[in-house]
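> tool_call: predict_assembly(chains=two)
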Amino acid sequence: MSELTGNLLVAQSGGPTAVINASLAGVIQEAGRHECIEEIYGGLNGVLGILNEELIDINEERSRTIEGLKTTPGAALGTCRYKIDFKKKPAAAARDMDRLFEVLAAHNIRYFHYIGGNDSQDTAHKIHEQALARGYELRVNGVPKTIDNDLPHTDHCPGYGSVIKYVGATVMEITTDVSAMATDDGACCVIEVMGRSAGWIAAGAVLAQRQPGDAPHLILTPEILLDEAAFLEKVRAVVAINKYCVIVVGEGVRNAAGQELGADASRLDAFGHPVLSGAADHLAEVITEKLKLKTRTVKLGYAQRAAAHFASLTDATEAAACGVAAVRAAVEGKTGFMVKIVREQSSPYQWTTGLQPLGDIANVERLIPRDWFTADGFLPNEKFVEYARPLIEGEVKVTIEGGLPRFVELVKSRVEKKLPPRA
Amino acid sequence: MSELTGNLLVAQSGGPTAVINASLAGVIQEAGRHECIEEIYGGLNGVLGILNEELIDINEERSRTIEGLKTTPGAALGTCRYKIDFKKKPAAAARDMDRLFEVLAAHNIRYFHYIGGNDSQDTAHKIHEQALARGYELRVNGVPKTIDNDLPHTDHCPGYGSVIKYVGATVMEITTDVSAMATDDGACCVIEVMGRSAGWIAAGAVLAQRQPGDAPHLILTPEILLDEAAFLEKVRAVVAINKYCVIVVGEGVRNAAGQELGADASRLDAFGHPVLSGAADHLAEVITEKLKLKTRTVKLGYAQRAAAHFASLTDATEAAACGVAAVRAAVEGKTGFMVKIVREQSSPYQWTTGLQPLGDIANVERLIPRDWFTADGFLPNEKFVEYARPLIEGEVKVTIEGGLPRFVELVKSRVEKKLPPRA
């Protein structure tokens, strides 16, 4: 273990989650426990803000605010989708890296933690490699985050448990509604959730089933191309039994030809422009037309990944622990890793954190194995359920004021800039 | 006070809410306290099930289940949108009424409580009038219910407080997400909520504003025709200040020509109203095209009216009290009323229940007064806030099992049929 004294910089990137701020709190609180870490800075809007030297002084924030981050959704530092892309824009990427290391050096930053998904871990990996190449002593450890749950090597990703807990509860609630309204005419509800290429969120809705046959009756994921005829037959059969059918669909589900359902270019509006509807709206149209069933849609959108008011305590706890682990590893001299969650056993659930080289993460996307679905592909099976069930356990206690959540906001006291503006 | 001994029939109608079952629990628990009420029956799927003599014996249900109804969304007895329509189908309506009174007489039903919105109170009113005309001694008192909050004479409707509490929290959460992602490019999110002709739900989202200028930045309601140019200018101005803009839109919002933004005139529901969808998608298209801002949509659909996991305790308490009051009034000899909520004062909030003749309710729809909006019509003002704020106070405690809500279900022990099937 080599002692390295200097400042710490933490930033957030990509789509927010209900618990990405819990990871931020974990980083900050752990950093405060180590004397080798002098100042704690936050980079605004991820690497984009860092390039613009937009740093805030975390030690100016109240401890109560930092603790409150653990139940505040969004991303308190702001995020970005900015990519330092050496492949497509090598000259710009080289300039960005020069600038980035100027900023790091100007503020004596020796610890860097990037909280994010695939692209963010890729960025962290590049910064790690550049630090080595430039001989700039910097400890870079990524903290995983993504509702999509598609990062490799980690058992699951912070953010995922909360989104499927919320989606599961929402499916249960909608089912009480749809079933109450169902008459002999039959009725369907299609609930669209996020997940462009991985179906983890849609699949997680299966936890709403207390018994076999409960809603959701069908779950469509991007992993399995949709056989429309088989789908309609299944819906028909479910309605014949229940009088209603609840379907969960991931936004990126594709048809047998491999085209996204929601990007059907064959339909034109009054001006002759293609109508781009969502996957749920598309399915509702098909069901209405082919089965003559009244079908309503729900599109949870951003609501699902921000739903702190029903976040998973397990998820929030793990998210914070990942932040803590990243700092601990750095203080112990480790760099170039992403923290991962290691499942020790499912029942009772036991987990710990581990480290995975950042180079193993970038651009690898983990999908749901085919044998985690039923034979017909319309529902996840018991293997998936065993995997997902522990992740939604426990409820985060959000502060309520006047009947609504009271989230914290950072004061964002700016660190004085030491460099000329970015060219 | 005239003593009337016999059985009680309760049924639910129209769209479910997070608390319509709390009203049912109120009716059942109060009915159990009066010796003049012998059996307590539930009618399945509203008047439709009653016509088919589909009654269940509530005394076969466990007390724990009845108590659990207070935190279970949906409509435990099932609902319908069936209308006994003397105007459009006089012969069928006359047959229905004959059949209905056969069922009531066959089961010695002397107390009838219908829990529902405008159309359901209209049905209750007709049954009351028919009972008088037929000389059948029946006490008919309606229990109000509707997330739309558009019933006249009652200060507000059970179901409304819960939906705006959920929508308010969701707007707050989505705002943390949108604001975290906002860069100089600007971003918008349009959240579509229910409200066919009244904008109470959309307006309720204003409670998410902790301070002036907070999201939601614009709220569009059916009460005010949309001036698209003024709307776009307002969005542009908000984005110039915040880099992002959060908009809440009621599904029934109309343009300057009076046409619904999301109307599809080809689809009609059982009452002949057009099925609306797509106000948010329409606005997102306009914003993207005219302002070149990345715009996402959220369509909460059924999720909003079933969200028991974040229901208002004030709302659930009032819903149960309305059920209690309906039975008490009937036992005291009153008939032909709808229970209403009477506000005694707003701060601190004090309320009681009252009675309004059913004839005053039918086909009257209450809209938001124009002077409850700001001058430009894009936000409700302090008059609305004073009205709505008390309704979301307190949180219902839903039983959680395995990380998800545990709702109750009725056993639904059928009452033996005494009549031949409905012709």
